[in-house]
Every structure is written in C-alpha cells, then in structure tokens.
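The instructor's notes for this session suggest beginning with a concrete chain rather than abstract definitions. Hand out the sequence below and ask the class to guess, before any prediction is shown, which regions might be ordered.
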Amino acid sequence: MSSIVEDRLAFRLSGRRNEKGGQYINNFNGDREVGEEMTQSVVGTLVATPRENIKLKLRANFTQIDDGPSNNFKFGTGFANCDPDGNGSITFLCGKPPGVDAVTPVIGFQDAFNPAYFNNFVPGLNYVRDVIGGFSLYSPTGRPVTDSNPINEKMGLAKRVEGATFQASVDLPRDMSFDWISGYDKTRSSIVSDENTLPRDGALAGIIGLGDIFLVERFARNSSHEARVTSGDEQRLRWVAGASLVSGEVVSSCVAGINGFGPAGFTCRPILETETLGAFGGLYFDLTEQLTLSAEMRIQNDEISIPTSGDVTEFDDVGGRITLEYSPNDDVMYFINYSRGFRPGSFNSIFAVLSPTEQASLIANSGAGFNIDPETLDQFEFGIKGDFLDGRLQGSAVAYIGKIKDQQQTTVTNYIDDMGNNQLITVITNVGEVDLHGLELEGAFAASETWTLQATLGWNYTEFTKGTCRACVVNIGQASETDFLGNQTPWTPELTASVVATYSRPVMKGKYDGFVRGEAIFESTKYATEANLLETGDRQVFNLRAGLQADAYRLEAYITNVFDDDTYYYVSRQTDLDTFGVAFNVGLPDKRAYGLRVTLDF
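After discussion, reveal the predicted structure:
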C-alpha cells in the first residue's frame, strides 16, 4: 500500500495480464487458435483509518477475458461402440474415447467470423458482428440489456466483469467488533461456438455450413450486504451473530446460425431473479483449557422468480455445524464435527418459455421438472492437524462420511419443439441419494536445510444409492431408470494425489535463493454420466521448475507435462447436430510446454 496521508489514508493499484497460446490447430483454416486465452484485470484499493477504532476499505475491480475456441472436441454418433440396454443398437461410447492422436488431425472449427470466407458472398461481411450481432443482448435493438458491448467478432468467449466492495470494521467496547461488507458486480459475456467442432457431414457438406454456429449470451448483476457482531476472542464463551441479503438478476439469450445468412432464435432461458435473506450465528465455549465445543447455524430464505411468466417460489433451509476440538498442546489439535449443508432449490426456467407439448417432450427425455428441490449434505468429519518432529513436519489427516439427498445433477438432453426440430438443452434434475466417504491427507516435511517434501492424498468414494435417472434411459440407452444405482458420481475422481520435492540454497554469494522443483500429480478416472459407461482414464502429470528468487523478483524456467500425458480433462454426453443422435465431448489436454517466467514486485 502507498500512503496518501500517513496512518490515515493509503491506496494500491494493481494490474495483471495473462496470455496463453492455443496448442491445437484448427484444420479448417490452418490457424493455431484452439485454446487461446487472454485475461487482464485492474484492481484499485483505498484504505482509510479516520479513527484508531475504525477501518474503511473500498475495492474496485475490472476483468476482461477474450478467449479463442475452447479446448474441446466432439465425437459424433459414428464413434458409438456399445449397446447399453442390450437391444442390438450401438448407441453409446463405452470405455475411454479415441486418443488425442486420432482427434488432432480432424479438429475443424467452422470460422463463421472469417471475413475472407464471407467476402465471397458479401464483401466486408463479418458474420458474427454484422449478422448475429443484431440479435445480441448488448445491441441497441430494444433488447433487455443495451449497455457496453462485449460482442465477439470471432469464435470464443468475450467476458467483462466489473464490481466493487466496501468494508467497514469498528472496534466496540468490551473487545467486541462490528463488520459490514457490501458488494456489487456485473458480468457480461458472449460465447460464439461451433457446437459440432467439425465441418458439416452428409448432405450439408460443402454448404456455407452455419448450422453449428451458436451465440450464447449472459448478463448478470448481483448485490450483497452482510453485517456481523463478534465478541472478544479472549473470553471463555465467544460468539458471533449476523445477517445477509443477496439479490441478483440473470438475463440470457441464444441465437443459432442455420444456413445462408439467416440466423434464428434458439430457445433459451428467460430472466431469472433471486433474493436470498440469511441469518447466522455461532457459539464457541472452552470446556477446559484443551477442550472447545462450538455450534454454528445458518437460516436462509431463497426467493426465485421469473418476471416474464409470473412464476415465484421460495425455499427455507437450515444448515449448521457442531464441532468438538481437543488440543493437548500448542502443536496438535484433534477434532470431530457434524455438519449439514445445503444447495438451495431453483427453477429449470426453460420450462417457462416452452409450450405444453414441448414441456412434455423435455420431461419424457430427462425426467426434469419445472421445480428443482434443494440438495442437502449431512456429514461427519474427524481428524488431526498440527506440527510434529519439532516443527519439521506440518500436516493434517481428515476422514469423513456423509449422505447427499436430492442431489442436483446437470443433464444434457433434448426435446422436440413445436416445429418438429430437435433442440439441445441442459437441465437440472434431482437424482436421489448419494453416499460418500473419504480421506484427505496433507503434509510438508523439511528433510534438511535444502530439501523440502510436500504431499497430498485424497480418496473420495461416492455411490448412488437411491433414486431414478430418466436421462440414463432416453439419452444413454440403459434398460432401467435404476441401472445407475451403485455407480460413482460423474466428473469426480475417486483418487487424487500429488508429490512436490524442492531443493533450494543460496547462490551467487547469498544474493539469490536458487531452487529446483519437481511435481508429480495423479488423478483417477472421471465418468461422463451417472451411467459410468464413458470415462477419461487416469491422468498422471509431471512438471519441472528451476530458478532464482530475490526480494523483488523471481526468474523461473519450467517444463510442464514433461511426459506429454494426453488424458482428456473430462468427458461428457452431448448431441450430434448432424444426426441428432448421441455425441461425446472431451476436454483436450494441455501438451508438454516449456518457457521462462519473470515476476516483479514493486
């Protein structure tokens, strides 16, 4: 912080810019553009201390994101290799999808933004800017949102986030304190994507090929306020009490390019408004000098509404935690706790803009309804944290067991609209109950003055134990709505682990700290859906880093993914927009990379 008025007023202004080049080539035009990322941000902070017992802080931020096409690829219906329900139809992809070597030669985004391509039809035309842009939330055409324009003129993501927070802290008599925080943020985003990630096949091959180009936009604004009063921390009985209010609005819009130069509206969600009122408190009591009992609770009311349809719903939820901590000395703490957490309910707001026949089609395909019930998690934890071996070893071991009820699961599905078109959509369903238990280990060991070892291990076992999955039958082809019971939750690895070894010592007569670091990271397979038919396989990544560090700067050379592990980051079920059969999305892995990084503090 830089001082404006000594001990009374100070400020800080910081900026950051991160760029990452694409590692995959778009074979439609030969550009290396798949996976490009650029993020830049500016943050300003002003801190005032008008009196010794009052501290005020104002923080404003702006973030700009301009990314190219994302690192993903879609395998079409032709890659299906299995028959989940045994009726003789090959409808799904089971096991691990074909590897990166098979994908790389055929990645081909249809670059609808390419002026040279469209100049053959209309000189100077930029399809995204000049044609689809008129349908944007951010264009001055009477849409709900008309301020600043983050519209893309190319494939990828354009996003703008701006916000501010105000904090006030006041020291009260009897060592109590009062804290207030208010925040406001606004997010505008536009995503232009080629949903098939391949030039069109079959009868439409060679045509202008705009059928897979989508513009999906989102405008959101949120405000939040929280106040809390806290007792002094030197008392045997300590407490905290507070309340919060959060309100928000989300507007979304979708446009699809069909063919020629005539984009069409694509069914998308209406405006969604939310208001959350909460009250919370906690009591912390030292039973003895070594034993502390604490109880925390949060009561929350969520109101969700769709102004265009008049639909309103409310959810009341209660969460909390009871903890018992035992510290035989200043270095070690044992604990056990029970907690209940919740995820509020909501709407599948797409239902508000569908006709009764369209709603029936969506329900039949997904099992989703208009209302989404709250999800709850009841969990027990017990473990130990502390310093051992005279401080050379710091670590923790935590075990847990729990149950999720009415789990909210995002499902990719489709429905037939009133024009007979097959529409792709995502909805949230309550799939039932999930049992979970696991273990988390973390440790850091100073083996010598020059060697440090760090390690983590996570085991997270999950199992569906109750419920039904309509999408597993209609969109995956399983014979029964309960065939998924006993399976692992999708997108969640059961095992994660990491080991980091660092060698460091002073160099150049002690002017710098030199270091060499090796990292090994493991992640077990992740499944695409509740059916557990398609998976990523295990991922193992090794990184190497070496460099010099001084007080003001750091110079680092690195090699990431040394052995070029090509395991996909994720797999998911999608829809093939050529056949409207099942397709399969994969997250392309980052390849081996090397470089030099310089960090300067001033």
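Then share the key points. Residues 200-210 have pLDDT under 50 and may be disordered. The chain has five helices and 31 strands.
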